[in-house]
Amino acid sequence: MQFPRMTQPRPNEFIPPPECPVFEPSWEEFADPFVFINKIRPIAENTGICKIRPPQGWQPPFACDVDRLHFTPRIQRLNELEAQTRVKLNFLDQIAKFWELQGCTLKIPHVERRSLDLYQLYKLVTEEGGFDIVCRERKWTQISLKMGFAPGKAIGSHLRAHYERILYPYSLFQTGANLPNSQKPTLTNDTKDKEYKSHDLPQRQSVQPAETSTIARRAKRTEGRCSKTEHAEQCESRPNLRRRMGSYVAKPEPVNIPVQVKQELIEPSGLIVEYEKSKVEQYICLVCGGGGDEDRLLLCDGCDDSYHTFCLIPPLPEVPKGDWRCPKCLAQEYGKPQVAFGFEQASRNYTLRSFGDMADSFKSDYFNMPVHMVPTELVEKEFWRLVSTIEEDVTVEYGADIASKDFGSGFPVKNGTFRVAPDEEHYLSSGWNLNNMPVLDASVLTHITADICGMKLPWLYVGMCFSSFCWHIEDHWSYSVNYLHWGEPKTWYGAPGYAAEQLEAVMKKLAPELFESQPDLLHQLVTIMNPNLLMEHGVPIYRTNQCAGEFVITFPRAYHSGFNQGFNFAEAVNFCTVDWMPLGRECVEHYRSLHRYCVFSHDEMVCNMVSKVENLELELASAIQKDMGIMVQKEQALRERAYKLGVWHSQQVDYEDQPDEERQCTKCRTTCYLSGITCPCSPGQLVCLHHIQDLCSCSPSNYTLNYKFTLGMLNQMFTSVASRAESYDDWASKVNKILKANQDNKSDLEELRGLIGEAEKKAYPDTDLLRHLRQIIQDAEKSASMAQQLLNGKRQTRYRSGGGKSQNQLTVEELRSFVQQLYDLPCSIRQAPFLKALLSRVEHFQQRSADLLAEDMPGSSALQGLLDEGSGLDVELPELSVLRQRLEQARWVEAVQQASEQPASLSLDCMRRLIDQGVGLAPHACVERTMARLQELLTVCEHWEEKAHNMLTARPRHDVETLESAVLEVNSIHAYLPNCLQLKDSVNRAKEWLQEADALQLGGRVPVLASLTDLVSKAKSIPVLLEPLARLESLVSEVQTWKEGAARTFLLKNSSLSLLEVLCPRCEAGSQKSKSKRVKDVSPTGKKPIVRLDCINDVERALSESKDTASAMATLSEVRLKELESLSSLRTTNEAKFQPMPSGSVPTVCLCHTVPAGPMLQCELCRDAYHSGCVPGATEVQAGHPWLCPLCTRSEKPPLDKVLPLLASLQRIRVRLPEGDALRYVIERTVRWQHRVQQVSPVTQQFCGKLRPVSGMTSSLTLEGSNGSFYMQHPCIPLSGLSSELEDLLVEGLLLQVTLPELQQLYQGFLNQLSPSHHSLQSSEHDHQYHIAQDRSPPYRTTIPKSPSPKSPSPKSPPHSKAQDVVMELQKETEKLEKNPKRRLEKENSDEQDKDKVKKPKKKKPRMIKERRCEEKRTTSPSNSLSDPSYSEDSEEDWSVCSAERCQQPEGNEVNWVQCDGSCNQWFHQICVGVSAEQAENEDYICINCSTNYFTQ
What we know:
Layout: E1 22-23, H1 27-30, H2 33-44, E2 49-52, E3 70-71, E4 74-77, H3 78-81, H4 83-101, E5 107-108, E6 110-111, E7 114-115, H5 118-127, H6 131-136, H7 140-146, H8 155-175, E8 194-195, E9 231-232, E10 253-254, E11 297-299, E12 306-308, H9 327-334, E13 344-345, E14 350-351, H10 352-367, H11 376-386, E15 395-403, H12 404-407, E16 459-463, E17 468-472, E18 479-487, E19 490-494, H13 500-510, H14 512-517, H15 531-536, E20 542-546, E21 551-554, E22 560-564, E23 568-575, H16 581-594, H17 602-611, H18 618-645, E24 649-652, E25 675-678, E26 704-707, H19 711-739, E27 747-748, H20 749-761, H21 768-797, H22 812-824, E28 827-828, H23 832-853, H24 860-871, H25 878-901, H26 908-919, H27 925-953, H28 960-970, H29 978-1000, H30 1009-1020, H31 1027-1050, H32 1059-1063, H33 1096-1105, H34 1109-1136, E29 1158-1162, E30 1169-1171, H35 1200-1213, H36 1218-1250, E31 1260-1261, E32 1270-1274, H37 1284-1295, H38 1301-1314, H39 1316-1334, H40 1362-1379, H41 1388-1399, H42 1409-1419, E33 1457-1459, E34 1467-1469, H43 1470-1473, H44 1477-1482, H45 1488-1496
Parallel strand pairs: 1-2, 24-26, 27-28, 29-32
Antiparallel strand pairs: 2-21, 3-14, 4-13, 4-15, 5-8, 6-7, 9-10, 11-12, 15-16, 16-23, 17-22, 18-21, 18-23, 19-20, 19-22, 25-26, 29-30, 31-32, 33-34
């Protein structure tokens, strides 16, 4: 095999056509092949071919005798198969032959690196009018563009030169034009030109006409040459052989035919030469008649005629070197009839194994890969590339049309040599066994007596890669079935039968040269054409790949072609069914028009079937009746025509006994059977009745009509077949009449059922008509049932509560088509009018829906009503979905409108929810507008929500004015915005808070701590910048700091009492009441509520609710009275415990509530006794000091000097709080008590002098009823020794939470009077220590090295203490603050600055004692001279008065003085005020009175 290397695919590479249908029948469907093929025929015949995959497991054994099989394949040169490529090759062969006869060799020129297409160039120049016109009109550039060359490269001039050199002489020779003045062309070739090798198609064809030319004479003076002969094959008829044009190859017989070559003249014996040219005539030019220029005189190698080179057309520039033919010989050579193209038989005989080795080797070498790895798509594209090129010659071989009767079929057959296994015996009788299929009862070919190879007997096909079968249709337009036993796939292309004439027209249009010489070219199976080219011209083409084990079916008149992908083995056969009968008769008429042989006689087959009419099925009998009716009618007409022409002689002939070749019409080659015309002058010739006038030139009266049957016999045969089909025909006509009845004459369904019953009763065959009738009845019954269901469903929907949609609903179009189908049925359906009414309702609903949907946005109620109406129709209406969409849209729009009308409920979540709901809606203008407004509102709201949130959480916070301006903008947004509402609420609360803050300062009142704390706590929840808040928080912080300092000053360590409980008088004295919150008493209606002061909570609430300090003092005074009253009762009760009890009961004392025993301590305040072991710190009790029990010891009782700064600092803060009022009351109470002590001091001294000493205060006592005795280790002052006034004074002093020296002096005085011998020493010591402890130094002191001169006190000034002055100043300052309306909290900053200035007074230099004394005389008040009565007047320093409240009366070197740098300028002993000499020298000293006055101011 010859093949070139693969080249790159062209840009316009092959595009595979669409796939044909592929069927996969079930085992039940696969049982009867003709039933299944008839079933798929409506689908498959539209594509011409189809593929059938047998059920899985259907694998017949391969029964062919491989060892005995040998064959000679056909040689196929691929580029000669394609029609257009073959035209080009024929043209190039003619050009090459023309120049070869001229003594030159043709070489193909190259233009732009590719071979020049001479055929295309010749066609284009011819279409443009010829060489002269193209040159004159300068169309060479256009021609170059049409040939696909790029513009702008002067290709036109090259094409002109090549045409003028190669093609123009041939064109002149073809036209016979005379151009004596033309330029002499030459066939000089370029070195790049490729020499053309002629394909010599006429010498390689299988069918050639007989050569009739005689031997030409040869010139005597030429040298002898060997003659070339051609082998021709006679296209003669061969008896009893089936002929497929292009497939039958006869053995070539060599015939010596000279072909215009120069040779020596050899005269055969008996041949007389009548004429011989003279030697002179041989040297005379036949054109000019001259004999000159012998060196330019040419002698023809064919006829020995002489010509001058310059007399030829066109003139030759020089004498050719090779053989030369004159113009007459050229014309004679080209005038020979063209030989028909056919396949050449290979010279080698193959076995199946050797052919397979060759095929596999070819494919693997060509694609350079294993055969099983080559993709089918690659092989397909390469095949169509190869058949379309003239530059690559690929030759393959194809073992086609191998008779199965010679070597055995691939399928097992009965009585064959192949032994079948028991489990495979069913393949012997299978309908899909190709040996059985043509002769089955359903096949018409079974009535043909002869065994026709390929039609009734399968043919075998052994293929290799690229071996192909060309475009063709089956003989007599029959079906064909092809089964691929094994091997690689076979690629098929097919066109449907209705496109057969279109395919023929397209191929004739694209390759007219081939059909001019071979009109029946497509019947020769030697020509293919690219499916893409056919599809471009509108021919429908389909393809498939047939794999091993698959069937391919071709349908009547379906053109098909294809090629093999590789080595494979296939088997094919024809078959015909009843539906083919009309096509078979039409095919015979088509063959007659083409003068083509018939494989069998169609009329003979029909007559054979009529002879067996009793055994025919009714369906086949009916078909034969129709076909025979046409046959008899035509035969009668033809015989009448022959009689009219004068054919009067006739004779009966048995044509079935004659071979087909002897009864063929010499004109149309149709096989005659019913009749034929012969003439005595032409024995052995026969014509059909269609060509009577083409027999011979004799008169028709000499003709003889040879007939098989007389017209009567034909009519009798027709009657017999008609009687067989008569009842069926009557029944069929009745059925057809009913089926074709109009609307008014339709029958009911029962009548159709009666026809089915009649067919079953008479056992009519299962024909198409019967199946059609059954299908109609089935469809009618189904339609009636469906119509009834629709009507029932319609009535049921009236009672549906939910109006739900049924599962299977018809669409409107389905309902309309269903109603139309009911009316189109051949029978009448009683439900049709009701469904038509339903359809009218549906159409009315659709119209109303269209009108309602045309509105911009209809109301939801109207949409819902229409939707309910449509749902009740029980029909799938497309408007329902649109109505539901529009209903959702309307409800959404209404929901948005409703939400917009209620801004209080239109929150951001609501808007987002509405937007989310709207996003899922179908698009609509109203929805989009509403959505745009809603999104705009949402955007604005989100902006303001975020802005409001930022304002509320901003640090630093915004002021009220900024937020209020934002609130004004927010008010224009009609939506529920929590942050904006919170912003608005914050602004309102801020305004209210500012009003409350301003109200606290109205009238210059001092704010109460509770109100201030509540106001500060309110401000913390207001996210607004409140200017007074910082000051209020500072005040609260200062108050808390003050309370902490006061608690540290007063409270005992680990005390359970609060500061208020310590500072307030005890309202629960004498009872151990809980501190739980009391229930507020409800006063009678219309009466002033009674303020209860039963517990500390009541007192705290009363102090907090008091309007001013005076009311608070009044409340505390009331509590003091209750305290004294309760304490008096308690003291009396406790005193009674130690009195003899008449009942003899033993009192319980102490914290342990047991009887007295052992050393006891008696509280000076509550008069109760305590065991010394039960009281912590009993051993530390000092004699001469009043002892208080743990219950009466409530605080640390700091000295007054520590308490006064607390009050001063509280006055500076200017905030009222219960603890402050209580502290103020403590100081006032202390001052009042001191004043009382000073007032009663002289009286007390007098009284104490009259007191009777009480002896035995520490003696042991025994109470009745007790088991032991006890004694008072620390007794109290007996109440019997004191007057009530003194007792109250002592009790009042003990209740004070301040340590006072007056109390100790008073208590010591009582002790001295009652027991002087026992207490004198202790009292002296205690007084000294007590005074030292009480006089603590202030922070600033001034040292006075020497004592100033004492001043004499004024006897007129009443005695008073410094604390009394402080209290008086505090009262005045308080009254001043309460009466001054211009004092505000905002002026505290200036007070703080003044305070800082006062804290650091300017230091003064020490002055002389004498100057100090002079100033003391001028400035010191006489009342300040009151001091301790025990001062000495012996020296100057003795009568100098120390201004300290409790002067320690130092003596000697201890007397050092310091002067106050405040406003009083008083003098103090350094030791009395606790100032060292260094401090007095370096620091300023301000006495406690000046400090108190400053802080109160």
